[in-house]
Every structure is written in C-alpha cells, then in structure tokens.
Amino acid sequence: MRAIASVLLALMIPSAFAECAAKSTSRATPLVELYTSEGCSSCPPADLWFSTLRAQADAGTVVPIAFHVDYWNNLGWKDAYSDARFTQRQRNFAHAAGARFVYTPQVVLAGRDFPDWRGGAAAKALEASRAQPARAELEIAGSATSPRVVATLAPGTRVEDLALVVAVTQDGVETKVKAGENRGETLRHDFVARDVQVERGWTSGAKPSIDTRMQFTPRPDWKADRMRVVAFVQDTRTGQVLQSLACR
User: Counting Cβ atoms within 10 Å, is residue 25 exposed (0-12), middle (13-18) or buried (19+)?
Assistant: First the structure.
C-alpha cells in the first residue's frame, strides 16, 4: 500500500522546477497584462495575439501576464484558470484609471489601458516603453515554487502606494471548451497567471527595498518546463509600473 501511495503522490506532483536567475536593466521592461476568460467569445483573438509575444518574452524585452477573470463563469463555462483575485485586480485598476466598468479582453501596457493592441501600434508602444528609464531594480533567483525576489527603488521614491507583485505563469495551456460562448473551440493560452503574491514591506532609507522569498504551492497540472516567475513593482494608486522582470 505504501508503494502504491508513493506512486500516486509522484504522479500528482509536477517534476522538479528548474532554478533560474534574472536581473533587470537600467531601462524599463514593459509589463503587458491581458484580462481574459475562456467564457468570452471575443477573447480568443486577444489570446492568440498575446502568444505572439513569446519571442520577446524569451528575450527578456517584455513581461506578459494573462489574468483570467471569474465573472464569466456563471454564463455557461467555468474557466479553470480564473481567480477572484484576478478579477479584483482588474477592478482595482479600473478604479485607479477612473473607469466605470471592467471588460474582456483588456490589455494593460505598463499600467495603462491599451485598447489599440489589435493594430501595429503595439510594437511602437512597447518600444516607447522600453526607452524609459526604470525607477526600480529587480532580481529573481530560484524556482517557480520558491523564488527569491529583491526589489530596490530609486533614491527618493515614496513607498506608500508601492507594491511588489510576484506571480507564477504557465505557457502552453490548452482547453477544449464544452459549453458557453466558445463551445466546441480548442483554446490555447500562454503566460497564464497560476498564482500571485503581493509584498509591501519596504525598508526605510535612501533606497527602499524588499528582499523576500516567496513560496508557491505547485498544482498537479503545472508543467515545470513551461513556468515563469514574474515580478514587478507597481503604484497601486495610479497603476503605474516602475519595473518588471521575468525568469524561467
């Protein structure tokens, strides 16, 4: 019986997560957020566009993260990757931006609503964002289950509204939708947020910092070779992103 239990446990736990290390540069690396849902018929084109960022993400010149919201779940199909925390994050952003409602698909670039993602404006907007100086330094080391993240702010930066957000994302997710607006479709996603944690304990001094070890509990469907650790510093009052970084 013990042998059987050990085999079952091994099948449930993902294979070992590789260690990675990354450090941000003096220029901003744009964070691109996608708010999406498998229950939304207008979302698949945005999901496909989001996957085109893979090459830039692998090169470290952009940090994408897809937050699957849960307010579509009662309309025929429950998105397995949705999370009430992601919905609340979108609502918090809408409040900071002065918007009256949330919607999907929504693309947010460097903390600003970016409805022009469908056209060629995305490349220019990303390049313009990369030209800006970073207002924070980030370092990531470790695995997707236990990353150490160090964030250091530029001298004189006020910390009252700043948060360090650390997330684990997964590429290559595929779902055969059996109900709802996308019934019969096979949807594919990259950069899917699987878990997220927020830290606000900045040190005092000329260059406030956070040095933290996050702990994420892996789920049976996490694939070790498809995971990334994402970290970014954000002003929660305005939505502005000071710097972002990913590691895989």
Answer: middle
Q: Are strands 63-68 and 31-36 parallel, antiparallel or unpaired?
A: parallel
The DSSP string of 52-121 is TTHHHHHHTS-EEEEEE-STTTTTT---TTB-HHHHHHHHHHHHHHT-S---SSEEEETTEE-GGGGSTH
For the chain, the domain total comes to 1
**In the prediction, which pLDDT does 15 show?**
54
C-alpha radius of gyration, the chain, whole number: 18
CA dist 35 and 69 (Å) reads 7
Alpha carbons within 13 angstroms on the beta-carbon side of residue 201 total 7
Q: Which two tokens stand for residue 128?
A: 């313009």
Pairwise CA distance, residues 148 & 215, whole Å: 9
- Report if pTM > 0.90: yes
Residues 39-63: what's their mean pLDDT? Answer: 97
Q: Does residue 117 form part of some domain?
A: yes
Residue 4 belongs to a domain: no
Range(s) of the domain holding residue 62: 16-247
